[in-house]
Amino acid sequence: MIKLAYLFERFPSFTQTFCYREVVELRRQKCAPIVFSIRPSEEGPAETWDAELVRQVNYLPDEKTLMREVESAIGRRELPDTVAEAIENWGRQTDFLRLYQAAYIGARLPKSIHLHAHFAGMAARTAYWIKQFFGIPFSFTAHANDIFVPRSFAIGLDRLIETASSVVTESDYAANYLRTRFPQSAEKIQRVYNGLDLSSFPRADFAAPVPLIVSVGRLIEKKGFSDLIAGCRVLAESRYNFRCEIIGEGPLENDLRAQIQGSNLEESVMLVGAQSQGEIKRRLAAASVFVLACTTDSSGGTDNLPTVIMEAMATGLPVVSTALAGIPEMVEPGVTGELVLPNQPQELANAIQQIIANPARIREFGDKGFAVAHEKFSIETSVRALLKLFGSTGSSPQAD
Q: Contact, 281 vs 201, CB < 8 A?
């Protein structure tokens, strides 16, 4: 079994529960990684995280303490000369803290280890410098905005992909996008689906007396909640009886609430706020259909392969979404749900109505989606694929 370390910007995080699941499953498969987190974990309900796992995370000190410790170690000549040279030459350019973080973390890692980061962002850029300073190979998983609208840094997506031993992304769509953009690194770019603990999802029973539409996500533009509310208005104007729950929080909450009120949908569409993972699973199991009206936001950002769609399918729900990025790899029209074009509330409403008006179709689509989830999105399968990939990068083996 390889020696493995994971580096996160923040761990654990409510908006990145797939990262938490990955670490938990690695531990279950007897490959417990050393975990570093640049920022503190997010507080939440006691049942959300395994307390013992969180206690074992190596959290970096605050910025001033971090810089002081690294500079002291440089003064004592405890770090490679390349660290002092790079920090001096870099000065206070943007992202200078990544060099300090890399020096701090790299000094605490054994040489014969493989380092993996999530997102082509702060953690991956820190991993890049760890490779420069200590020669420790790294890989990273790229997800959505970090692929499609990456921010501009001196160590950008091109340098990260060029330097990494392997690059993971969560859909064939994104993998092909990156291979086309970076053909010289095409062979190192691999698709591994995000995985779920499928046994933790209760099956939908479709017992709601009124059809219940459920949607989950941060209240941000690319999730398309405005289009969902507009679609609900179409349903309401057609005198269709339904309820819709939107689970999540975010910067668009006030705008969405105003849209609901302006559409006279207060009795049928509810913003229920952020919920624990357990509560989300319970609400999914009570639903009739899951809807996520993903779109491309004003900056060009879009979802890649939304985990909540996998979760809905694992619950046995039919899914209505948009034909965007990797979503068609999950939702097959007429088989596990329906897909419409983004920003088409009328088509979205029609697709929802066609499903919830037909109880037999609800169950048929839900059953087929459940089968697809078990075929493609098992966390055990995903982690085995990652371990195989990490092991092929030249990391030194470790006895079981």
A: yes
* CA distance between the termini of the chain: 6
Residue 76: CB atoms within 10 Å = 8
Residue-wise pLDDT for 364-399, tens only, equals: 999 999 999 999 999 999 999 999 999 876 444 333
Residues whose CB falls within 8 Å of the CB of residue 121, separated by 6 or more in sequence, listed in order: 9, 146, 151
What pTM did the predictor assign?
0.89
Q: pLDDT tens digits for 219-249?
A: 999 999 999 999 999 999 999 899 999 999 9
CB distance 268 to 234 below 8 Å: no
Has residue 39 got a pLDDT over 90? yes
Tokens for 300, please give them: 């060009």
| Confidence (pLDDT) at 396 | 40
Residues forming a β-bridge with 397: 2
- Contact status, residue 112 vs residue 135, Cβ threshold 8 Å: no
- pLDDT band of residue 44 (cuts 50, 70, 90) is low
